[in-house]
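queue> pop job 88
queue> type: inverse folding (structure -> sequence)
queue> payload:
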């Protein structure tokens, strides 16, 4: 195969392919941005975490602690009291774990925009570092 013929085949293949990158199965239309974030949705989720969910969890946890403490005292010395105390200790661990998870979710939602921007800048800088080789003068000789 002659060099000119190879160059022609490469040019035809390049012309047939769109220059946009698209992942298989994403369903994105060619030429549109596939990866998006929902800033208003994130703001709404953060607001719900700050104003309703986390304070509601604190309130529910305290209420459960108070009523369970009272009930534990009523059943002190009984097997039911010991079982209730064990269940209450497990409840406290679960509430603590859920609080930590919700705090982490709030932090993650807050940092998503920044993280996407870092990825965009990293990809752009990686692409600009790619050096397209100069044509080989021997090819045209």
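queue> result:
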């Amino acid at each position: 195969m002659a060099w000119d013929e190879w160059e022609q085949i490469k040019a035809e293949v390049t012309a047939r392919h769109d220059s946009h990158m698209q992942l298989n199965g994403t369903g994105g239309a060619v030429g549109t941005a596939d990866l998006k974030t929902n800033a208003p949705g994130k703001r709404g989720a953060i607001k719900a975490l700050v104003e309703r969910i986390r304070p509601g969890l604190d309130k529910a946890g305290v209420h459960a602690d108070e009523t369970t403490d009272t009930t534990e005292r009523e059943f002190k010395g009984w097997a039911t009291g010991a079982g209730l105390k064990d269940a209450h200790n497990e409840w406290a661990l679960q509430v603590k774990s859920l609080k930590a998870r919700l705090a982490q979710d709030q932090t993650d939602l807050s940092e998503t925009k920044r993280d996407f921007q870092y990825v965009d800048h990293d990809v752009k800088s990686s692409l600009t570092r790619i050096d397209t080789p100069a044509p080989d003068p021997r090819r045209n000789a």
